[in-house]
Amino acid sequence: MKKGAIIAVSAIMVIALGIGAMGFTAAQSGNLINTTQQVGIWVNGEGKVTVTPDTANLSLGVQVEDATLAAANQKAASAMDALVAALKAQGVAEKDIKTQGFNIYPVYDYDKETGRSTIRAYQVSNTVEVKVRVVANAGKVIDAAVAAAGNAVRVNTIYFSVDNTAAAMDQARELALLDAKAKAEQIARVTGVSLGSVSFVSDSTYGGGRVTPPMAIDSKAGAEGSVTPVLAGESEIVVTVQVIYNIN
């Protein structure tokens, strides 16, 4: 937002009264203040709402290596078929399984004496993004995938989200606007001016998910009856607003 000498940062509160006393005089005379002239009371507000994630998003896949590309590709396909079947057996809907990546890489051996590289094998990887709509089931889903794909399995990342954030965002936005109004009222009171109508509002929203570092899970996970623990914790939805009030 281009506002000349006005610098907008978190929690900044600025009264722009035009050049000298001219802007303030215009405000006292009852004229509307043109915000494009950088006049008025500028405030930022913030609203936070804590939510409990209801969805676990997993990145799962398989990776295999073989001397020939055809063999590697076939092994990867079989492992992924088994993994997807295990996901569906755990109640994951087909619409919640989406291919995230598929890669084929040659694996080279380097000969120091000749300085030449030769292809030793081929590596094939296939990754899917899985949405588990009941967080409590995420551990069982991971264990089922590990058991189905065996040593070929790759468990990459997991993050949590709230499937429907509309209500929480509305609440956070209202809190942010109230925060901004309280700041503007304080500025008006301390500086002896009268707070006018709102001439500009902008908002931004973030939050709703928490990223967990990549996970390394042994292929024997859950083999003895235990379930891989998956804890969603809590997330914050944060809305920040910038509001410009006219001065009466």
UniProtKB/TrEMBL annotation:
Pfam families: SIMPL. Signal peptide: none annotated. Coiled coil: none annotated. GO terms for biological process: DNA damage response. This is Periplasmic immunogenic protein.
